[in-house]
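[recover] target loaded
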């Protein structure tokens, strides 16, 4: 692999940098999304039980100590519980928007790597083909030995650029699926907590 990397020429280095850059954000997103997960049904049960037994402040304390978007929207709703149903719903909606933005944070950089790495590879291909034709011109000969170096460089940069894009694309697809699951869970729990708080305020 090192041999092929060195044979690919100068454009292999920026392609390698895009891979390192992309993997850095992959690790950041993996950790962040992993920490955002929570058993929402158990958490809802714990919060509602706390509200019934100890009041909203105790439930807010539970939310403060729990990671994830569901805990954040619960905390936002409980903070406005004394302002009425409309204000509570608005607070939950606003918190949901913020949490959604947080879940999608830095995904644009993964898209950038997926786009840029093949482009670098294709640019390396063009440079390699130019070198091959220059070699033909200089040697006044079109034998395979003359053009092999430039064509090999062209193919290697394209291959490595596409490999980097595929690696990052795979991670991005996993993250998008995870984000969709978290957003759906967040929306379901928003409805549940709003219904609960409305019934609680009527008591």
């Amino acid at each position: 692999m090192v041999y092929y990397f060195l044979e690919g020429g100068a454009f292999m280095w920026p392609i390698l940098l895009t891979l390192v850059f992309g993997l850095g954000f992959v690790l950041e997103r993996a950790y962040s999304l992993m920490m955002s997960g929570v058993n929402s049904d158990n958490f809802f049960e714990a919060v509602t039980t706390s509200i019934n037994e100890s009041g909203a402040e105790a439930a807010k304390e539970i939310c403060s100590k729990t990671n994830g978007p569901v805990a954040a929207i619960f905390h936002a709703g409980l903070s406005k519980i004394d302002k009425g149903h409309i204000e509570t719903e608005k607070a939950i909606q606003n918190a949901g928007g913020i949490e959604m933005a947080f879940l999608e944070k830095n995904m644009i950089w993964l898209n950038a790597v997926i786009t840029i790495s093949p482009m670098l590879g294709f640019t390396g291909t063009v440079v390699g083909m130019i070198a091959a034709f220059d070699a033909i011109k200089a040697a006044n000969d079109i034998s395979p030995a003359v053009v092999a170096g430039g064509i090999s460089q062209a193919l290697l940069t394209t291959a490595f650029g596409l490999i980097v894009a595929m690696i990052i694309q795979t991670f991005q697809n996993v993250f998008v699926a995870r984000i969709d699951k978290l957003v759906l869970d967040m929306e379901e729990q928003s409805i549940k907590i709003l219904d609960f708080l409305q019934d609680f305020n009527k008591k």
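[recover] notes: The radius of gyration is 27 Å.
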